[in-house]
Design brief:
155 residues; alpha+beta; five-stranded mixed β-sheet; 4 helices
């Protein structure tokens, strides 16, 4: 069985390694130095207040998947939603149900926190992710258009 647990500060090193694999998966050729990544993870997940949350999937002692999320408000009426920012399964663990376990855990987190919905996006060319979500029975929504302001505008 693959346990899925909330991320804790002791997990920062392995989170950094898996997020480096994620960056490589998305085509990044340069990543921040490890100490910078560890600082960023600590600030985001374990700062006061935390900026995001994560759940981690383990196979024995190896981290094989993670889902990062934040809460958004308002959603429907004055409810809140859980926004899934990243769902990533290590290449060595794909096809073994890890992604489904992570999504199931997010459903539990959303219910515990009285969320009315879980929302996320995926890149248009990430067909593998789209197939995964279709297998979960989640249809694509075409009623929203995604926008992004890049960080350079904030400096």
């Amino acid at each position: 069985m693959t346990p899925v647990v909330a991320a804790e500060p002791v997990h920062v090193d392995v989170i950094a390694a898996l997020l480096e694999e994620l960056d490589t998966f998305y085509g990044e050729t340069q990543v921040e130095p490890r100490d910078v990544r560890i600082r960023q993870i600590n600030e985001a997940l374990f700062g006061d207040p935390p900026l995001a949350h994560a759940v981690l999937a383990w196979d024995a002692q190896a981290l094989v998947g993670l889902a990062t999320y934040s809460f958004l408000w308002p959603a429907v009426g004055l409810t809140r939603s859980l926004y899934l920012k990243e769902l990533y399964v290590a290449e060595t663990a794909r096809g073994r149900g890890v992604g489904k376990l992570l999504m199931d855990r997010l459903v539990e987190v959303a219910a515990t926190n009285f969320c009315s919905r879980i929302e996320w996006t995926t890149d248009r060319d990430n067909v593998q992710a789209q197939r995964f979500y279709e297998k979960l029975g989640v249809a694509q929504r075409g009623d929203k258009i995604f926008y992004r302001l890049e960080g350079q505008l904030f400096r």
